[in-house]
Amino acid sequence: MLGRFMDFYVKDFPQYCSMITPHPLASELLDMALNKGFQLACSSNCVMPKIAIEERIRCCGIDPKLFAFIPGMEHMHYSKPDPLFFQEIADNLGVKTEDCLVVGNDLDEDMCAADMGMKTFFIGLLPEEINTRATYSGDLKDLIAMLEKEEI
């Protein structure tokens, strides 16, 4: 069964990439972060094999090799929204959680990284009435500006 699932992601899934429109600033953001010395980790929920997540990254027009770590169900012990998912990624990178920034668009599944001492950047507008664990919020332009000014 797993073999057929893997075959799907290698042979069939790429044809669906035409339905995805990559964000025009995503590559710029990743390149800037790498040029500033950041290690990149994908923090997509690991409910699929690593190869499936790599193919999803490719569909966004991004080379998975940019990431020092990509989670997959075959080697992770936790998944979102468990904050230990983010601890496990930091452990795999060999970094302290307080030196990490998690960027995500889900208040529950991504911002819980703050529970592990990580800084968080919520992509989107935060409703005023919501008490969130997001350290920062905005859009990719805002995040790029913060990186340029070394505010993160």
TrEMBL record:
Coiled-coil residue windows: none
Keyword terms, alphabetized: Hydrolase
Pfam family, one: HAD_2
SUPFAM superfamilies noted in UniProt: HAD-like
GO molecular function terms attached to this record: hydrolase activity
Record's protein name: Phosphoglycolate phosphatase
